[in-house]
Amino acid sequence: MHSIVLANQKGGVGKTTTAIHLAHGCALAGQRVALLDLDPQGNATVALQGMSAPAAEPLFDLLQPVTDRLWLLPSVGNVATPTDASLDVDRLKALVEQLAAVVDLLVIDCPPRMDAWGWAGVQLSDEVVVPVQPEFFSMHGLSQMLSSLAAASTAFPGKARLRGVLPVMVDSREPVALEVLEDLRRNLGSKLLDSVIFRDPALVEAASHGKSVFVHSPWSKGALCYAELTWELMHGRSSIG
Ligand SMILES: Nc1ncnc2c1ncn2[C@@H]1O[C@H](COP(=O)(O)OP(=O)(O)OP(=O)(O)O)[C@@H](O)[C@H]1O
Ligand SMILES: [Mg+2]
After folding, report:
1. Would you put residue 160 in left (φ > 0), alpha (ψ -120 to 50) or beta?
2. Closest residue to atom 13 of ligand 1, CA basis
3. What is the pLDDT of residues 119-130, one digit of tens each?
4. Residues with CB under 5 A from ligand 2 (ion)
5. CATH number for 170
6. Is residue 6 assigned to a domain?
7. Can you give the residue range of the structural domain that contains 73?
8. Pairing between strand 70-73 and 64-65?
9. In the chain, how many domains are there?
10. Which of these, 156, 177, 193, 203, could form a disulfide with 123 (CB 3.0-4.6 Å)?
11. What's the CA gap between 1 and 161, in Å, rounded?
12. Are 201 and 169 in contact (CB under 8 A)?
């Protein structure tokens, strides 16, 4: 089983949206995927509540089937947060070991803080994707985040390797956003993923209907951007490159 965590201590940068669409994208591409909602806010859980596949193969009690190849471990009441929202990293590790036998990919959504939950997600994952909005304040937080991740990959050998920084919510009509994107490419080089997630209201609408954009608006710009990201992360290169 391969595992990828979406992490950034900045709030509202598209971690949850990316976790959902990477998980569903890989499931649509044929992988068996578990999405672990590690954010006590439970946004990924809510954003998928309009999708359920009761006829899908039950894996174990805690996992809710979302499609025939995607299972969600919801935020509230999961094995790490039985009732009181306190984190039990050892139980979480045991769960991840159990998952390894039944799924190909684990995608983890983190809270907007590198607290105990955020670090648990990072320490349990092979790779980290850092979504970032190309704007000045996000850039400042990014260097901090990348240094913390470098320390984490030393502290947890074999885990927490930076897979790449993902530009999200990019508004192609904003010249400043495109300039910052160019700066990012110059400064980060191959650490910046090729895929770019453009701003698209279809992603907000899909979440408000409790569905993935691949179901709600499959031909939208948001769906195409996340299909591209899925391809890049599965095949190690962009589909256009
Ligand atoms: N590419 C996009 N275009 C337009 N809206 C987007 C896009 N990506 C995310 N959003 C919207 O922006 C808001 C924040 O996104 P999201 O919840 O994914 O961020 P987050 O980093 O998980 O937030 P938090 O830090 O609170 O967990 C949501 O309303 C989401 O629907
Ligand atoms: Mg979130």
Report:
1. left
2. 12
3. 889 999 999 999
4. 15-16, 43
5. 3.40.50.300
6. yes
7. 2-235
8. antiparallel
9. 1
10. 156
11. 15
12. no
